[in-house]
Amino acid sequence: MTRLRELNSNLPRLDWVTVELNGARYRLPFCFRKGTNGPALLFVHGLGGAKENFYAAFQSAALAHCDLLAFDFPGTGLAEFDAATCSDVSTLADLTHLLLKELLSRDVFIVAASMGGLIALLLCRRYGTEEMRGFVNIEGNLAPEDCMFSRRVATHSFDELSATLFDQIQTELSSSNYAGDRMIAHNMALNTDVRAYYAYSFETVRESDSGRLSDEYLNLPVPKLFLYGEANRTLSYLPALRAGNVEVSEIPRSAHFLFYDNPVVTFEEIGRFVNRFSE
Fold it and tell me: Quick one: pLDDT band at residue 11, thresholds 50, 70, 90?
């Protein structure tokens, strides 16, 4: 029985936290696993994603020593959505800040994917980087070219999205050769509120078109790692990142959702990075 308790203590724990923002209460599910003597990592998912995007991190030997925390934004996974209180990604940045202060009492590495990368940048813009030990950006939004689906959504009405476009996007992802695309399509069908998908797309496009994000990322005064899939090696800003103070790493046999396409290498790279900067 003692050995069973020891094993269970190393497994991820699903729980809920309630935070208050501008008079509204948000009940958010999270998955947490206590490490041994390693740093803390906070995972931030993107549009159409959920905390389960990062579940392989909890199984990665490279991160076994780390405290790991992943959670759902409103309208994704198990978290309910209210359009009146959660209308944009700036709200998601505020929620991330509150959750960080509530659940992790020490400095963290932010690991953010796709739209989550934008949310992490907004978090830095609004609250600074004093509580951040490093920023792992998994193909997060930095430029107009990164709005693969959000731009399509932002040019349609909600009725058009809910009637046809949402299903079209899922169909396109489902027919991809990459496992990550197909997994995200599955998540959209089961765990994504179309109202949230619509609401979050507009500010994502505006910020990505602003011309600010790449410079903001380059100028963050913390260690930075940018991961991208082999299929996306033509991203226009990769040379600027390499020329700046950013570590850039290509994940083989992967497209945009590389945490599903090649999770072993993805989390090994993240483990290598956080170990270097966790002393």
Answer: confident
User: Do 258 and 229 form a contact (C-beta atoms < 8 A)?
Assistant: yes
CB within 8 A of 66, min separation 6: which ones?
35, 38, 39, 40, 41, 271, 274
Mean pLDDT, residues 236-242: 98
Integer Cα distance of 152 and 148 in angstroms? 7
Rounded CA separation 266/258 (Å): 7
pLDDT digits (tens, 9 = 90+) for 67-114: 999 999 999 999 999 999 999 999 999 999 999 999 997 799 999 999
Convert the pLDDT of each residue in 134-180 to its tens digit.
Answer: 999 999 999 999 999 999 999 999 999 999 999 999 999 999 999 99
Distance CA 259, CA 53 (A): 7
Question: In this structure, are residues 187 and 49 in contact, taking their beta carbons and an 8 Å threshold?
Answer: yes
pLDDT at 279: 65
Alpha helices (H) along the chain: 2-9, 55-59, 89-103, 115-127, 150-154, 158-160, 166-174, 179-191, 194-209, 213-219, 238-243, 258-261, 263-276
pLDDT score recorded for residue 278 = 78
CB contact at 8 A, 268 and 245: no
Give the CATH number of domain 13-276.
Answer: 3.40.50.1820
**What residue spans define the domains of the chain?**
13-276
In 3D, which of 111, 131, 8 has the Cα closest to residue 62? 111
Beta bridge partners of 16: 29
Q: Which residues contact 274 (CB under 8 A, 6 or more apart)?
A: 38, 39, 41, 63, 66, 109, 133, 134, 136
Rounded to the nearest 10°, the torsion over CA 204, 205, 208, 209 is -150
